[in-house]
Design goal:
- The chain contains 8 helices and no strands.
- The protein has 180 residues and is mainly alpha-helical.
- It has one domain.
- Helix 1 (2-26) packs antiparallel against helix 8, helix 4 (56-82) crosses helix 8 and helix 6 (92-114) packs across helix 8.
- The two termini are 17 Å apart.
Length: 180
């Protein structure tokens, strides 16, 4: 039962830091996007962009729930691995940052392109379509994405490494590391 609480705490910490970053950076620091619209963009991964925008506060709340669910799943993976791989708790800072970078790649170049927020506004319906979406997503690694891309890529890398992976790893170290 203790591991469930550790996972929930890791998901809560990472989710809160990540969403606060998104509210500030995509809001007053750059594009002026409201917190409601930021949360709707998360919901778009499940229901598509148009439906998420048309749903008002209901889809924003759906996005908030999905955001914390994803963060909790990220924490669950790390905590469960940390129970088997002691280096994850012994060198939590290093492995937390590495885990955050892995999460960055997974979210931005696999999950989002395959989601309903990706191309054609629906989930990939075939392996061929999934391959096309993943190819397009990974082509951005080489520098595509428009004028804001360098700024945005470093911001999202920072967010995933420092505000998501690191807190999860430090919480795992605090609670799982005691068991080792």
């Amino acid at each position: 039962m203790k591991f469930v609480w550790v996972i929930l705490l890791g998901g809560l910490a990472a989710g809160a830091l990540d969403i606060l970053y998104a509210f500030v950076v995509f809001g007053p620091l750059s594009y002026g996007i409201s917190p409601e619209r930021v949360l709707q963009s998360v919901a778009a991964g499940l229901i598509g962009r148009e439906a998420s925008r048309d749903g008002g506060m209901e889809t924003a709340l759906l996005g908030l729930g999905l955001h914390f669910l994803i963060a909790t799943l990220m924490a669950a993976v790390y905590v469960l691995l940390a129970t088997r791989i002691t280096a994850l708790t012994r060198q939590a800072v290093l492995w937390g940052l590495v885990y955050g970078l892995i999460l960055y790649v997974a979210m931005n170049y696999v999950v989002v392109p395959l989601s309903a927020a990706g191309a054609n506004l629906h989930f990939a319906s075939s392996f061929a379509e999934a391959g096309e979406r993943l190819g397009a997503a990974f082509s951005q690694v080489r520098g595509g994405g428009g004028d804001d891309y360098p700024w945005l890529i470093w911001g999202t890398i920072f967010t995933h490494a420092v505000l998501v992976g690191l807190p999860i790893a430090l919480i795992a170290k605090r609670f799982v590391g005691q068991q080792a």
